[in-house]
Amino acid sequence: MYTRKSILKRINNVVHNLPDNLGLLIFDAFRTKETQRDIFNRFQLEIIKNKPHLSDEQLHQEVRKFAAHPDEPSRFAVPPHNSGGSIDLALYDINTQQQLDFGSDFDDMTVVSATDYFENNIKNTNFSITRTNIVKINRRILYHAMTSQGFVNFENEWWHYSLGDCLWAQMLNLDWYYLSLEQEVLKIMGD
């Protein structure tokens, strides 16, 4: 798994500031455009299976809630993961080696994956009050640990955090500075 040195440095700061019994479980960081295309297509097939009634435009909009299209610069000039400035992660219990409960799986393409879902929809879930509170606490710990190091969270995915990429810049109304890490590597290698 690859990322930028500055991202790794901040992730290390996150780890050092977590409670002693918690660690970070990293799912994904840098992605090539080819990998991003595969993910986009896989998500599209999954959504078609679960929502066959959607028009092509509705389908495209639904997929884009969870994956950037690698060749469509209208939303992101460089897909966040392709920049090397995005990371997908969760917390885990160091003693049990188990991921904490976040209420949905990584890459779950439902509204339950929205970072604030359990803050606003307590009555709309099938979760017990106890589990709902555990999920809220886990999401809050991850959110505050990451944002304290300058990351921003993609609101549709509790696991996705960005720093220095298009998504980060868009959310903070700043200029972004991480271009495509893939293109930088190809340039160094002489294409």
Description:
This protein is of the alpha+beta class and 191 residues long. The chain has one domain: Muramoyl-pentapeptide Carboxypeptidase, domain 2 (2-Layer Sandwich). The chain contains seven helices and five strands, in the order H-E-H-H-E-E-H-H-E-E-H-H. Strands 1, 2, 3, 4 and 5 form a five-stranded antiparallel β-sheet that branches. The radius of gyration is 17 Å and the shape is globular. This is D-Ala-D-Ala dipeptidase. It comes from Spartinivicinus marinus. GO terms for molecular function: D-Ala-D-Ala dipeptidase activity; metal ion binding; metallopeptidase activity. Pfam families: Peptidase_M15.
Concise synopsis of the structure shown:
This protein has 191 residues and is α+β, with helices and mostly antiparallel strands.
Helical segment count: 7
Structural class: alpha+beta
Strand-residue fraction? 5-15%
Largest β sheet strand count, sense and barrel closure: 5 strands, antiparallel
Order of helices and strands: HEHHEEHHEEHH
The averaged pLDDT comes out at: 89
State the assembly state of the protein chains.
Answer: single chain
